[in-house]
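Batch manifest, entry 17 of 40.
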Amino acid sequence: MLHIVACIKQVPDTKIIKMNPKTNTMDRRTAPAILNPYDAHAVEEAVRIKNRYGGIVSVVTMGPPPAVTAIKKCIEIGADEGYLITDRRFAGADTLATSYAVTKAIEKISKQQPVDLIICGKMSIDGDTGQVGPGIARRLDIPPLTSVNKVMEINQEEGYAIVHRKLEDGYEVVQSTLPCLFSVEKTINEVPYSPLPNVIRAARYKPHVWSVDDLEGVDIKQLGLKGSPTIVSKVWAPQKPAGGTLLEGSSIEQVEQLLSVLFEKKELFETKEEI
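Output type: structure tokens
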């Protein structure tokens, strides 16, 4: 039976969040927590693969206790099981420490049912690094396929997957052995409204909640701040660009004003002779 694990994250809605001008940090209290949009597409693709080939979909996330809300959203989409690893010792983790902790959770999940495929969103909207997925793959020693925008085939019997990877000037078709990890683009699918039975199940569902002590073979030094070699020294909101000049008057007057500006900046349009 095909077992797919989707790695997700609960993030603040960056369309609403504000910066604290005194601390130069994001004020997470100003925005609601949501399921990372890229991860929603990852879960949707996992469910589509399950419906196509059979199997089960598990979702796993690291975060504070309220992150169960994100797991419930995944159950609405069609996931079967959800796992939350939550502990103060995870706090302050960068992408390296996060990939380590999530890997330990996946290793425990795989002992219950071997994992054939891991799917992550391309990146989280609060970090934009795209490093956690490949970091998990590296720790599990499985192939990472990034920027996946189409899954062509999953063949569990022969142990391979074929996907399209998005490139700047097109796409490439890649075949990989299973198990492997996909990090997917938003363009891979559309996340539809959840059917009522899924919504009811999600409302009643209780995720599996694990602490550090519930995981096996954990090196505490690789968790949280202790396991995070990167440090954010400063975060600030960029200054808003100056507004443009509004040209007024008749069309002839506006053209004259525009030409005047262009003549003042004529050096920008001059071509320099090569020496």
